[in-house]
Structure formats: structure tokens, C-alpha cells
Amino acid sequence: MRSSTLLTLLTGVAAVSASPLPGRQEVTTTTTTIFSSSGTSSTTPAFPIHSSCNSTLSRQLTRAFDETVTLASVARDHLLLHGQSSPFVKKYFGANSTTIAPLGVFSRVASAARGKMLFRCDDPDRNCATQEGWAGHWRGSNATQETVICDLSFAPGKRRWLDQVCGLGYTVKGGATNLFWATDLLHRTFHVPQVSEDAVHHYADGWEEVLGMAEKGDERSGFDSDALIYFAIDVYAYEVAEEGRGCGGYEMGN
Ligand SMILES: *[C@@H]1O[C@H](CO)[C@@H](O)[C@H](O)[C@H]1NC(C)=O
Ligand SMILES: *[C@@H]1O[C@H](CO)[C@@H](O)[C@H](O)[C@H]1NC(C)=O
Ligand SMILES: *[C@@H]1O[C@H](CO)[C@@H](O)[C@H](O)[C@H]1NC(C)=O
After folding, report:
1. 3-state secondary structure of 12
2. Which domains does the chain have, with CATH numbers?
3. Distance from residue 248's CA to the centre of ligand 1 (Å)
4. What pLDDT is attached to residue 252?
5. What angle do CA 82, 71, 161 make, to 5 degrees?
6. Atom 3 of ligand 2, residue of closest alpha carbon
7. Which residues of the chain have pLDDT under 70?
8. 8-56 residue pLDDT tens
């Protein structure tokens, strides 16, 4: 039973990878096997990277997406294991919240079919060239499944890797939500309907608003971009980076 389920899963994924992508022959369609903390494995499709990303940029993006999947998988597994009793769930999504929404979002980031979504390194909308400080952008109505990553994203010191979480004075409360490649790309995937089904939005802006929204029992918390990012990185800090301690930067129990 188990192996036939696995076979079905693998066949399904192979069919997705092998399906023709009209006009997108340049897109990478390899698959990555992710091992979850429970020791089981599932195959997850890679995020498609456009040929405008040269080998240097493409390799960094591949690593960054692997970390994004890791971040989402750790969050998903935490939700499956602890459900509503998790203090992180109570903190970021509310004391009486359901985990169904964040669980769906993180599962889709980790494992949903990638369809026609695409990450590119050229500047088709000229936003990298003309918008001061933009490190990337969702293409919105110009190409709703596409995201541009500007050269600025690759600048030295701009983004950190997950193994730097809890290092260099970082705290979840005090750190920017786009400090890490994984948290930055998590946010960018939330904008892409192929992943988020257009259900994740910006309702709260920053730490205080996220906590305020959860405290009020606002049901949008589980669909809020910042709440989802803070939850994911706080759980990662606590479970992986500095196990059993984390680096929240706030009093535990608050
Ligand atoms: C790739 O593109 C970046 C940014 O445009 C550039 O700095 C880098 O030198 C390029 N790498 C290669 C191998 O061409
Ligand atoms: C869409 O393209 C137009 C024209 O190239 C550009 O001005 C606009 O900023 C683009 N929209 C987004 C969301 O980038
Ligand atoms: C959660 O539910 C309990 C029991 O129904 C209620 O007393 C409490 O006010 C609720 N809290 C929020 C934030 O909605």
C-alpha cells in the first residue's frame, strides 16, 4: 500500500516534470528530494529558474530555493506535530486559530506543482534599473506567475543563509523579514498564484502589527505574509538553529 502510494506520487511528479512547457525550454525542471525531520521523504519539484540567470546567479538561487523549501518544510512539520498547542501558533496566528491555513501555505511552498511560475534575472519591466533599492519584484499584471530577482539581491551581505540564523546578533523580533534568502523568497512565492492561490496577502506590517492581529483573534493571521514569515523563522530558530532555545528576542511565554 505504502509503496504503491509512493509510486503514484513519483509517477505524478515525473509526469509534471516531463510535460512540455511551451516556449519555456530554457527552464530547469529537475526535482529535489527533501528529507523531513521525521525521516520520511517526499519529492518536491524545483522552482523554475529562467535562462537569464547565468550560472553564478542560478547556482545561488538553486541553493536559496532549497533553503526556502527547508524552511517551509520545518514549519509544516511543526504544525503537523504540535497543531494548535504550539506556542508559536498561538503567538503568530492567535490563541484560537486553526492551523489549516498556514499548513496549506507551507505545504504548497514545499511541494506544490510549479506550473508556469518562473524566476528570472533580467529586468523586463525595468524596475531593477529605475526603482531605487529594489532587490526584486513580482511581475503582477505583466506576468502573474513571474518574479524578477534584481542584481541587488546578490550583492555581498544582502541576504544570509539559513545556517546564519541566530548568528551575527540576529533575533526574530529585531531582524528584517527579508534578511535571509529563504525568508525573502518565501515572501516572493506568496505573491505567485501558482503557490498561494492568491490567498496570502499583506494585512499586518511588521512584528507589532502581526502580534496585535493574532491577539485580536483576526482570522486573517493564517493568511498574512509577515505572520507566516515570522512563524517559519522563529520555529526554524527554535528547532534547528539553536535547538530548544531559538533566538526570538522576546520573553518566552509572551
Ligand atoms: C552573472 O551575472 C552577474 C550579474 O549580472 C555578474 O556579476 C556575474 O559576473 C555573471 N557571472 C558569470 C559567470 O557570467
Ligand atoms: C509592467 O510593465 C510596465 C511597462 O513595462 C511597467 O511600467 C510596470 O511597472 C510593470 N508592472 C510591474 C508590477 O512591474
Ligand atoms: C479564545 O477562546 C476562548 C474560549 O472560547 C475565549 O475565552 C477567548 O476570548 C478566545 N480568544 C481570542 C483571542 O479570541
Report:
1. helix
2. 11-241 (3.40.390.10)
3. 36
4. 75
5. 145
6. 125
7. 1-43, 253-254
8. 333 333 333 333 333 344 455 555 555 455 444 456 899 999 999 999 9
- Which residues form the pocket of ligand 2, taking CB atoms under 6 Å from any ligand atom? 125, 127, 137, 139-140, 142
- Ligand 3 centroid distance, CA of 232 (Å): 24
Q: Whose CA is nearest to atom 3 of ligand 3?
A: 96
Is-contact 182 64, C-beta < 8 A?
Answer: yes
Q: What is the pLDDT of residues 227-252, one digit of tens each?
A: 999 999 999 999 999 999 999 999 87
Ligand 1 centre distance from Cα of residue 61 (Å): 13
C-alpha cell at 35: 528529507
For residue 215, give the H/E element and its range: helix 207-215
CB 55 less than 6 A from any atom of ligand 1: yes
Q: What are phi and psi of 32, to 5 degrees?
A: -120, 135
**In this structure, which amino acid lies at residue 176?**
A
Please give the Cα distance from 64 to 142 (Å, whole number). 25
- With 0-12 / 13-18 / 19 or more C-beta atoms within 10 angstroms meaning exposed / middle / buried, residue 254 is exposed
